[in-house]
Amino acid sequence: MKIAGIQKLTLLDFPGLMAATIFTNGCTFMCPFCHNSALVIDSSLNELIDEKEIFEFLESRKGKLDGICISGGEPLLQNDIIDFIKKVKTMGYKVKLDTNGYLFPKLKEIIDLNIIDYVAMDVKNSIKKYPLTCGMNKLFTDNILKSIAYLKENHVDYEFRTTIVKELHDFDDIKEIGELLKGAKRYYLQQFEDSENNIKKGYSAHDIETLINYKNYLNSINIYTEIRGI
Question: Does the reported pTM lie above 0.90?
Fold first, then answer.
């Protein structure tokens, strides 16, 4: 696995558990508001962490940590992610995967192997705005729709989430996302944060009242929705 970073303790990334988070190198998208630009732009220049170091760390934290989050970038780009997850599971840890859902066949394979405990899938925007939101000129979205549908079938515990950006998301987008996610177990609206690590500048957050209005609408159509980051 090409691992470019580790957060040795998080109380937020894995719901209900104390966990560590690793960040894999590279991504399928170039979302302009992404705050992990170093994992996306010129990622080949990043100094990588040897897997041995990760496993030594996990061995030293047995009984103290409950799980590990595999984030990115896009973790499903890693050819050996299945073997990595299996090793982590043999150590007694629960595993959460963060993904954009674009690589549906790999996502389905991992879920069907029953080696993952929780999946958090980013739903970037309404389908018509997916290319713009992902920083792409064109984007094949069928796999996105397949990933959403498969997670909604409850093969594994999961959540959907969207980072809400004022310049990219409006109420019409929220309504379309709501149609996509009807029947979903849980959905989180994440407040955008501007930082020096964003891929592009010029993006901003909606005010809290707008996020609350979005949340209330989604709850009104029976999608359990909460807000993060405020």
Answer: yes
